[in-house]
Amino acid sequence: MAILADPEFWIRLFGIGVLNLLLSGDNALVIALAVRTLPKRKRMLGQMWGALGAVVLRLVFVAIVSVLLKIPFLQFVGGLLLVWIAVKLVRPDTGGDGEVRHGASLWEAVWIIIVADVTMSLDNVLAIAAAAHGDFLLVMFGLGLSLPIVVWGAGILARLMNRHTWIVWLGGGLLGYVAGEMMMEDPLVKRWLGDAAALLHRPAPITVGLVITGIGWWLGRGHRHVSVPENL
Fold first, then answer.
1. Burial 17-32 (b: 16+ CB within 10 A, else e)
2. What is the pLDDT of residues 84-140, one digit of tens each?
3. How far apart are CA 219 and CA 168, in angstroms?
4. pTM, entire model
5. Cα–Cα distance between 17 and 127 in angstroms, integer?
6. Angle formed at CA 194 by CA 191 and CA 199, multiple of 5 degrees
7. Where do the domains of the chain lie?
């Protein structure tokens, strides 16, 4: 229980929740599209079972990625990939893709949700694994807390991102911070930087985060993110 009294645990839990929700906009849209033609009762069951199956697979993938990120240099490469994902997130042409077929039956809808989530979740898995720093309890808490919003909140997520673009910019900045932290903690980077690694451990991730947020603001002037369908 001592870990629950640790402020860093709650800060990282909040970060994981924000990142997962921000990066799950398309996933929530997939869930809504896959079950949209089912009767109301089956639609709720499809949302629940599809999202539950996707979360279980995501937990497995996070565990695998967490192990892989302990390999020198792979952590740095993963950080660079997160930077690319963050830049892609804050670009004005970022938007949901409505080309998802619906399920003709409950279990077909569940299968569509799980397969689509697996193919779309590299960004979520990498971000969560990086933010958790190998703490699997954090991963389970973070995914568990955000599951209800991902299942039932497709419309909420769409409305927030459509009306408040600054949420996307700040989320991209948070993702950039996690990416910078990830790269600075790579064993090869620490060895290369030597004594400077300790001095740059906080400033470097903060700088990356601010740069990503600035890029989002700069590219977003006079432009709008592609609106995500809200009423499905």
1. bbbbbbbbbbbbbbbb
2. 888 887 887 544 444 445 556 777 777 777 776 666 677 778 888 888 877 888 888
3. 12
4. 0.69
5. 11
6. 125
7. 7-220
